[in-house]
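User: Let's play a game. I give you a shape written as C-alpha cells, and you guess the letters that built it. Ready? Here's round one.
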C-alpha cells in the first residue's frame, strides 16, 4: 500500500426505495434479479456466471462494455444477515485498471413504514481514481436497482 491509500475514505451511498425490505434484499440475493440491475448503465450488458449466495459462496459477473469489450468482477459473500445486511468482497480481473484491488462492499437494509433505506459502503479502494469510478458506478447501479424494483413490483 502506498501512503496515499491511508487517506482514501470509503464510499457511502444511501438510497430509499418504496418497497419492502424483503423485496430490496431479494434483488441482491436472487441471481436472476441481481443480473438485471448490477451495472452502472443500461448500455452495459451483464451476465452472472457464478452466484452462490451463501456465506463463503462465490460470485462472478461478466460485463460487456460497448467500445471496450468484456470486464469480469468476482468476489465472495462474507456475511449474510437476511434481510438486514450483505457483505461481499469485490475484485476486478485483469485487464481492468483496478484489477487485484480486494475491496469490500457492505449493503445495509433498514425497514421504515413507507420505504426501505439501503446504505452501500464500498471500502478498501486504494486509489482516488478507483473511488471516483466506483462512486459513479454505484450511483448508476442503484438507479438501475430502483427501475428493477418498479418494473418487478
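Assistant: Ready! My guess for every position:
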Amino acid at each position: 500500500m502506498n501512503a496515499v491509500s491511508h487517506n482514501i475514505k470509503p464510499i457511502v451511498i444511501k438510497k430509499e426505495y418504496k418497497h419492502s425490505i424483503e423485496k430490496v434484499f431479494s434483488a441482491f440475493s436472487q441471481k436472476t434479479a441481481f443480473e438485471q440491475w448490477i451495472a452502472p448503465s443500461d448500455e452495459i450488458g451483464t451476465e452472472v456466471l457464478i452466484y452462490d449466495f451463501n456465506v463463503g459462496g462465490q460470485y462472478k459477473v461478466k460485463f460487456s462494455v460497448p467500445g471496450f469489450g468484456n470486464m469480469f468482477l468476482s468476489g465472495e459473500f462474507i456475511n449474510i444477515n437476511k434481510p438486514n445486511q450483505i457483505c461481499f468482497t469485490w475484485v476486478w480481473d485483469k485487464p481492468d485498471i483496478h484489477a487485484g484491488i480486494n475491496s469490500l462492499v457492505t449493503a445495509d437494509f433498514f425497514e421504515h413504514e413507507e420505504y426501505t433505506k439501503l446504505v452501500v459502503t464500498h471500502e478498501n479502494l486504494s486509489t482516488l481514481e478507483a473511488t471516483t469510478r466506483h462512486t459513479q458506478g454505484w450511483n448508476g447501479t442503484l438507479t438501475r436497482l430502483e427501475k428493477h424494483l418498479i418494473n418487478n413490483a
